[in-house]
Amino acid sequence: MAGGVVISSSGGKVYPGHMTAFVFFSCLVASSGGLIFGYDIGISGGVTSMDSFLSEFFPSVYAQAKANKDTNQYCKFNSQLLTLFTSSLYLAALATSFVAASVTRIFGRKWSMFCGGITFLAGSALNGAATNLMMLIMGRLLLGVGVGFANQSVPLYLSEMAPANLRGMLNIGFQLMTTIGILSANLINYATVSIEGGWGWRIGLGLAGVPALIITVGALALPDTPNSLIARGYNAEAKKVLIKVRGTSDVNDEYDDMVAASEEANAIKHPWRNILEPKYRPQLTIAVLIPSFQQLTGINVIMFYAPVLFLTIGFGGDASLMSAVITGLVNMFATIISIICVDRLGRRALFLQGGTQMFVSQVVVGTLIALQFGTTGVGEMSRSYALLLVVFICLYVAGFAWSWGPLGWLVPSEVFSLEIRSAGQSIAVCVNMTLTFIIGQAFLTMLCHLKFGLFYFFAAWMVIMTTFIALFLPETKGVPIDEMSLIWSRHWFWKKYVPAAHEGGSNRRMHGV
After folding, report:
1. CA distances from 87 to 80, 151, 285, 308, 437 (A)
2. Which end of the chain lies in a sparser environment, N or C, as judged by fewer CB atoms within 10 Å?
3. d(C-alpha 70, C-alpha 439), whole Å
4. Could you list the residue ranges that cross the membrane (predicted)?
């Protein structure tokens, strides 16, 4: 240690940080952006399993779902219109991510979060009051715009606000809030399904306005990140925020490094073009593959359609919603484990362990369903058999919640240098939403045709993605966000794209240490 600066394992400088009340408050409010994302995942899966909702908006699906037990259980909910209701949000989020990148860069992270909250608020009002399918889909599209803005800005905000040694823990606050949103939605589904008159689904869809209000009002109270303020020319304000964030006035070295990184970034006039340069190949690969793999774990299939899935395999209506509550609880508590471990064990250890656990669970779930329903999809499931299935689905959800869930957002948000950070995060969100839309739209049809083989399909992807992590992802634990290029220049594979000479400003500034 020299002059209050520690040399990290990557060779860069780490400015020792601690959890100040200001950092905690800022990251808590920002991470509430995850509530709107999680609440929607949970609520849309629940209402699409409610008889009153299906009979009003999707009567053909309702009739098919009410058919007797001799019908094919794999295909009873197969409807492109029903899946379009769920997945239209992700199409809107995909389109929004490109606009959100410019808003985040030009106006700052906090205003992008505000845009997300206000549009999600409008969408929830439209959905809660919907009287026809068009109103329902329009509401979903507005919700998608909100998710696109929030998922673009919140992970960036958290990564830039957090001290390097706490970045993993604070960034995963976004995923924890997502899991709290899912759990809250599952509990509301369970509480409203039996309301007389069949209007319980309106409460669920309308209450999406509560998390939207939290992030909308919260964004107004938040400061912007020092990195964003410097990039937009507000250097004096950036220094004030940095002093508050770090809880000390001794921030000159870190501030100077931020200014130098911003000057290098401002020299880049076309981040979308520059991100295609060979020296950014590793970051671009991560921005595309990590979000793709996150969706190919099959998690959103489980979370969107948990109630529908449990109904499909023979649970009663209330029992299916209760099972979704159980998986929601597991998801939340396992995410807390990730928060505790990510800055101690590192990203790679969680990825590798979680991936292995998810692979085993998917294979067992697929096999249990195969033994019960075979290829015909005809049969009923005993209570003990159903409980065993829920146990392995919970093991799968736990594996995801302490690995691919939080790290799928954390790693892409922390690997980009400032000059391409907004463009890189936009690509990550865009890829995530594209895959979410495709898999969400295709899932019920895939379940109908692949049957239990669908779970083997996702298990095969678990092997591929776990191998990718083992070979191609260097450890990013504790590496300062503006020193991240160093880890690529020392990796056995990526160093051919990022030569040591590209350590640039980081290396130059280190000589004075």
Report:
1. 10, 16, 25, 15, 5
2. N
3. 28
4. 21-39, 81-104, 111-130, 170-193, 199-222, 296-315, 321-342, 349-373, 385-405, 426-447, 453-473
pLDDT in tens, the chain (513 residues): 333 444 444 444 545 566 788 888 888 888 888 888 888 888 887 787 788 888 888 888 788 767 655 556 667 666 777 777 777 888 898 889 888 888 888 899 899 999 999 999 999 999 999 988 889 889 999 999 999 898 888 888 888 888 878 888 888 888 899 889 988 988 898 888 888 888 888 999 999 999 899 899 999 988 998 988 998 889 999 999 888 888 888 888 888 888 887 887 777 777 778 888 888 899 999 999 999 999 899 886 666 556 656 666 566 667 667 777 888 899 899 999 999 999 999 999 999 999 999 999 999 988 888 887 777 766 666 777 777 888 888 999 999 999 999 999 889 888 888 778 878 888 988 898 888 888 877 777 787 788 788 889 999 999 999 999 999 999 999 888 777 878 898 899 999 888 774 444 444 343 333
The per-residue b/e assignment along 194-233, b for 16 or more CB within 10 angstroms, e otherwise, is: eeeeeebbbbbbbbbbebbbbbbebbeebbbbbbbbbbbe
- Cα 207 from Cα 143, distance rounded (Å): 13
d(CA 267, CA 319): 58
d(CA 460, CA 481): 33
Kindly state the DSSP code that residue 2 receives in the 8-state scheme.
Answer: B
Q: Cα–Cα distance between 457 and 43 in angstroms, integer?
A: 26
Question: Sign of torsion, CA 113 33 163 474?
Answer: negative
pTM listed for this prediction? 0.77
Q: What CA–CA distance (Å, rounded) separates 430 from 414?
A: 17
Give the count of beta carbons closer than 10 Å to the beta carbon of residue 248: 15
Q: Give yes or no for a contact between 213 and 27, defined as CB atoms under 8 angstroms apart.
A: no
